[in-house]
Design a protein that fits this description.
binds iron/sulfur cluster, alpha/beta, TIM Barrel
Amino acid sequence: MTLRISEIFHSIQGESSFAGWPCAFVRLSGCGHGCRFCDTAYAELPGTDMEIDTIIEMVAEIGSPLVEITGGEPLLQPEVHPLMEKLCNTGANVLLETGGFLSVANVDPRVHRIIDLKTPSSGVCKENNPENILLALRQKSSARSMFEFKIVVADREDYLWARQLLQETRLMDACTVIMGVIFGELEPDKLARWILDDRLNVKMQLQMHKYIWPPDMRGV
Ligand code: SF4
């Protein structure tokens, strides 16, 4: 069983409740959604076909207990599921970062799902898969939610869209919701003010790797 891989690398997790931890990243090739502010457009390139066992060996060589499967859109390749299962079986703490267009219903329950909610400025807001919110709400009673959602805003319109969605769904009561700014598009202090003024119970976060390394650097 093979997967198309864009890159495998070791870096600091930058955008989730795991931000700051060293992490092994497996970036799968291919997405096709064309979000306006995509910062991994190079993942659209064909990449390299790799056996699942080879990927697991490379991750083991990195030696990080935290492993993130990302993209592109990782859920486009069905073989991602056996990859995640095998990584969980090694004892790794596995994260899945997905654009949120596809359902995460079939993801191994041991995997922590980090799901984007795309805002109007992305141009693909209508493609958010509502099933992912329903799945998170249904899991609300469990001790530790394996869901978190990430909303990156470029302007006030995006923020108001997000606020309405969160207030209507009460998603913030079910799991962590991360909110941040699109790097270079919106000043972080504006978003902070809006969140505080509205008493919005979200975790504000900036894309840590873009402050550590040059914002357009690959493999970080
Ligand atoms: S879903 Fe992610 S990888 Fe795909 S185009 Fe959008 S930002 Fe880029």
